[in-house]
Amino acid sequence: MLVESQISAKEYKYLILNLFYKKTSFLIFCFIGLLLLVMYLFNVNIEGLEKTPVYYLYFSSFFLVINPLLVYYTIYKQINSNIEFTEKIKYNFTNENINIDGETFSQIIYWREIKQIKKTQNWIFIFLKDKTIYIISIKNNTAQYSELENIISGQGF
């Protein structure tokens, strides 16, 4: 079954940030950052000192500002250094493998190399064991989606 997909740089940024912000570790970091900021602003001190330490503010700014900016910068660098992210890609799903043909590359992925397949309303994420992610847009391919889902579920995902 042949599926064509293309993702814009804006969509890629949104998807990766969305995946990152849904992780439990990131949510815990945000909670700790907010807690430290509130403790600093309201002079709540759990260490028994007269004044709230300034490092509460430093850690909260790291968790709430610097960490998300670093993630965004990393995504920006990925997009600018690798043109494959925004190419039109053809995925040919068979029972043995997935043939991926882009404008500047071609690859064969066997089903045993796939770690996880995650489906959302408009996207399918194929996670490989080597930390590679392939993103397939299904918002324009709704007719093919049921056939694609049958192939994927037939492989145990």
Short précis:
The protein is of the alpha+beta class. It folds into two domains: 2-6 and 87-154, Pleckstrin-homology domain (PH domain)/Phosphotyrosine-binding domain (PTB) (PH-domain like), CATH 2.30.29.30; 9-83, no CATH class. The protein is built from four helices and seven strands, in the order βαααββββββα.
Give a verbal description of the structure.
The protein has 157 residues and is an alpha+beta fold. The chain folds into two domains: 2-6 and 87-154, Pleckstrin-homology domain (PH domain)/Phosphotyrosine-binding domain (PTB) (PH-domain like), CATH 2.30.29.30; 9-83, no CATH class. Helices cover 45% and strands 24% of the residues. It has helices at 9-21, 24-41, 55-81, 142-154; strands at residues 2-6, 88-93, 97-101, 106-110, 114-119, 123-128, 133-137. The protein has a four-stranded antiparallel beta sheet with strand order 1-2-3-4. It has a three-stranded antiparallel beta sheet with strand order 5-6-7, with no helix packed on it. Strand 5 and strand 6 form a beta hairpin. Helix 1 packs antiparallel against helix 3 (55-81) and helix 2 (24-41) runs antiparallel to helix 3 (55-81). The radius of gyration is 21 Å and the shape is elongated. The protein starts with a strand and ends with a helix.
